[in-house]
């Protein structure tokens, strides 16, 4: 299936939220398996997309240190409201718009069941491109 890098990136965040949940989830076993399988497929692409994002941040941003001597790195940041941040947004959006070919099958909506303790609406939103909602009402 063809999908934008941005939708794939967001879907991995949704999958991580489901797979790393701190609260019990009432998701059928078949759906759990399909989610884990989908995560494995998407993770390969996600790593490359995240590497592009990190390179943009390092190019336009500054390193944050957690100590006064500036010996312990806390990562990199681009300050919002600055010209470098505007450039970051432009370059990151260009990466997100790239179209990718992914060998993944959509998960049917009915596979998740209808328990309120299943997946959250926000997670559905992030996974929308990988959920087949063509079910009878």
Helix and strand arrangement:
Layout: E1 2-4, H1 5-19, H2 29-60, E2 62-65, E3 73-77, H3 83-97, E4 99-101, E5 107-108, H4 121-127, E6 131-132
Parallel strand pairs: 5-6
Antiparallel strand pairs: 1-4, 2-3
Helix pairs in contact: 1-2, 1-3, 1-4, 2-3
Describe the structure.
The chain is built from four helices and six strands; from the N terminus they run E-H-H-E-E-H-E-E-H-E. The two termini are 26 Å apart. The protein is of the alpha+beta class. The strands form three sheets. It has a two-stranded antiparallel ribbon.
Shape: globular
Spatial strand order of the main sheet: 1-4
Q: Which percent range describes the beta-strand content?
A: 5-15%
| Share in helix | 40-55%
Cα(first) to Cα(last) distance is 26 Å
Q: Count every beta strand, where a strand is a DSSP E run of 2 or more residues.
A: 6
Q: In DSSP terms, counting alpha (H) and pi (I) runs of 4 or more, how many helices?
A: 4
* Low-confidence runs: none
By secondary-structure content and strand pairing, the structural class works out as: alpha+beta
- Largest sheet, strands/sense/barrel: 2 strands, antiparallel
Mean pLDDT: 91
Run of helices and strands: EHHEEHEEHE
* Integer-rounded radius of gyration: 18 Å
């Amino acid at each position: 299936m063809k999908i934008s890098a941005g939708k794939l990136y967001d879907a991995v965040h949704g999958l991580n939220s489901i797979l790393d949940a701190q609260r019990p989830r009432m998701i059928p076993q078949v759906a759990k398996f399909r989610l884990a399988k989908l995560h494995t497929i998407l993770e390969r692409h996600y790593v490359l997309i995240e590497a592009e994002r990190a390179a943009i941040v390092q190019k336009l941003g500054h390193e944050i240190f957690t100590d006064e001597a500036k010996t312990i790195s806390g990562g990199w940041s681009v300050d919002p409201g600055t010209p470098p941040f505007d450039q970051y947004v432009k370059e990151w959006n260009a990466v997100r718009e790239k179209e990718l070919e992914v060998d993944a099958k959509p998960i049917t909506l009915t596979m998740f069941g209808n328990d309120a303790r299943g997946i959250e609406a926000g997670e559905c939103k992030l996974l929308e491109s990988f959920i087949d909602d063509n079910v009878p009402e």
